[in-house]
Amino acid sequence: MPIRPLSETMINQIAAGEVIERPASVVKELVENALDAGASRVEVVTAGGGLNLIRVTDDGSGIPEEELVLAVARHCTSKLSHDIHDIRSLGFRGEALPSIGSVARLSIRSRTASGDSAAEIGIDGGRVSAVKPAAANRGTTVEVRDLFFATPARLKFMKGERAESSATSDVVKRIAIAFPTVRFTLAGPDRSTLELPATDDTPEGRLARVAQVMGKDFPDNAIAIDAAREGVHLAGHVSIPSYTRANALQQYAYVNGRPVRDKLIAGAIRGAFADVLPRDRHAVTVLFLSLDPSTVDVNVHPAKADVRFRDPGLVRGLIVGAIREALAGAGIRAATTGAAGMMAAFRPGAAPYSHPGPANGHRSYEAAYHASGSGGFDPLRSAQRPLDMGEARAPRNGFAENEQAAFDSGPLASADARAGMAEPAEALLGMVLGAARAQVHENYIVAQTRDSLVIVDQHAAHERLVYEALKNALHSRAVPSQMLLLPEIVDLPEEDAERLAMHSDTLAKFGLGLERFGPGAVAVRETPSMLGETNVQQLVRDLADEIADNDTVETLKERLDKIAATMACHGSVRSGRLLKAEEMNALLRQMEATPGSGTCNHGRPTYIELKLADIERLFGRR
Predict the structure, then answer these.
(1) pLDDT-based confidence at 555, cuts 50/70/90?
(2) Residue 615: exposed, middle, or buried by beta-carbon count in 10 A (0-12, 13-18, 19+)?
């Protein structure tokens, strides 16, 4: 078959295969065009999941009548200067409109601020119609009907209407977070409407927009991020460790205002939360990276969702360091949703409450619902039994009068009298975790603050304390190493060997001593003592792969941290150990002073706080 040029329609359909993956891709391109035109209001209407109809209306600057033909031609754009590396708009390739028009029925109706009337142009499966007059307000309305009618095979790969509508909603929300001053509306055929009113471009306004998208619980369980390094600025919010999700769908990342799904950023978030979250849980994040456009390539793929950084190590280090510093500075905080779940469990007929994280080693509240047996009423086992039934009749339960004596701080005085007291117990009530009052089920410390009840899992809490102490000792000095009797020679591609040699000083601090051994190999002479007998070949290759991807040596550090976590788990206060009052209070004070102590090494909560107002509601006092 001879070589021949493809038709313009065929070229556009090939481009559409990359740019237009599904209805949500169309919405993304059209909404980005509206924002680039300076719109303050964007309205999206869909039908049939977007396959039957997509209509995007904005109040932007509009398209002059004489430029409508160019607007639907390939590689025609008003957004790109002569420098491909200086991209300051969301769109720039000039492919979206002709690609959509090649696989659907597209019409564009637009009017500029200075225009006396609007004009309209249409494309039907790649065939462009003549420009004609139309009636419209200032701005642009783009209507897409019968998506993929010109490429029927593509329709077979579409999901159901609900799935496509959900993907479209996610796209609108993702873009809306980056533009808080723009009002967004999304309407579907089921009369459900997503409305995101405009806020202001202040930190409070941006957080209010985030709350519109992610729910009102997020601001109450979030930590602000603000850090900069070598011309790269990072801002946004991340959730506290005890506020998580089962997937990473609520991790939003933006580079110079552009929503992206970048593996480097996702990996950095994972690394920053590595030792405070369970393996199957994910943090909730909204992060904005701002940097010189010339140091980031957004032209990796026509969909513009992937980016490449000139210095990926710098970006990853900034994200990991900023998040970890913010978590450390936030102090001890429990998720507000934990108390809500506990309240729900106490209501009549409610299902037993359990934390969404792993349950290994931690008993749920379900046990409280099975306290009484099926053999009739037993006063010794009843939940309504007297608090002190005597040594001969009931086991020591922690709430009997003689058990409570150790926690007694004297008779309660009036509020005015207590305000002037300087007793240690009163001071403890003002602390975050309050004063210990009892130990129940030989594992849970019950503490009291001025306005809440706190229940602490002593094993989980002490596990975190021991782990943090081990980590501090581990990273405050060079890691002890053990010399190998015979050096281990690891054969590698020459570029990998060169990268490892460049990081040899950093690796030595973690106890791994290596040096170049010819053009395509390294010789390992020392390994970290904590690792014991380890697969040196695999360790070095993993490090080489990570350095190639991220220009970091986090793999080795993470392995050492995992060993420290295991040691902490076995060396902490075990469940079932009775603690004295001073031991409990000492544990509470250590928790307050230790970063990340709101969760254990496995990501489970170490304590739950129930406000006095919530308790009073349970008893009908409010």
Answers:
(1) low
(2) middle
Residue 424 has pLDDT above 60, yes or no: no
> CA 559 from chain center: how many Å?
23
CATH 3.30.565.10 in the chain, residue ranges? 8-195
Burial group, residue 578, by CB count within 10 angstroms (0-12, 13-18, 19+): exposed
Mean pLDDT along residues 17-29 = 85
What φ, ψ does residue 466 adopt, rounded to 5°? -65, -40
Nearest-angstrom CA–CA distance, 145 and 100: 10
Q: Compute the distance between CA of residue 27 and CA of residue 34 in angstroms, rounded to an integer.
A: 10
3-state helix, strand, coil in the chain (%, to 5): 40, 20, 40
Pull the structure tokens for residue 234.
């990072």
Candidate ranges 117-126, 395-404, 606-615; pick with highest mean pLDDT? 117-126
Please give the structure tokens belonging to residue 109: 């109706």
Q: CA 273: distance to chain centroid?
A: 10
Answer yes or no: are the C-beta atoms of 214 and 284 closer than 8 Å. Answer: yes
Please answer whether residues 476 and 618 qualify as being in contact, where contact means their C-beta atoms are separated by less than 8 angstroms.
no
Phi, psi of 116 (to 5 degrees): -75, -25
**Residue 602 CB neighbour total at 10 angstroms:** 21
Q: Which amino acid is at 179?
A: F
H helical segments located in 5-121: 8-19, 23-36, 68-71, 96-103
Question: How far apart, in whole angstroms, are the C-alpha atoms of residue 478 and residue 100?
Answer: 58
Residue 9 scores a pLDDT above 60? yes
d(CA 352, CA 367): 9
Residues 6+ apart with CB under 8 A from 91: 29, 32, 33, 36, 77, 79, 304
Instruction: List, for residues 331-345, the tens digit of each pLDDT value.
Output: 777 677 666 666 666
| Distance in angstroms (rounded) separating the CA atoms of residues 289 and 232 | 7
CATH class label, 8-195: alpha beta
pLDDT digits (tens, 9 = 90+) for 561-571: 766 666 666 66
Interatomic CA distance for residues 128 and 113, integer angstroms: 25
Q: What is the CA radius of gyration of the chain?
A: 31
**Cα distance between residue 42 and residue 45, in whole Å:** 10
Q: How far is 450 from 431, CA to CA, in rounded Å?
A: 9
Burial of 330 (0-12, 13-18, 19+ CB in 10 A): middle
Q: CATH code for 215-329? A: 3.30.230.10
**350-357+398-408+417-622: what CATH class?**
alpha beta
* Nearest alpha-carbon partner for 124 in 110, 106, 109: 106
Task: List C-alpha distances in Å: 142 to 57, 138, 168.
Answer: 7, 13, 16
pTM: 0.68
As annotated, the residues of the chain forming the CATH 3.30.230.10 domain(s) are 215-329
Q: Where exactly does CATH 3.30.1540.20 map onto the chain?
A: 350-357+398-408+417-622
Element containing residue 144 per DSSP (H, E): strand 139-145
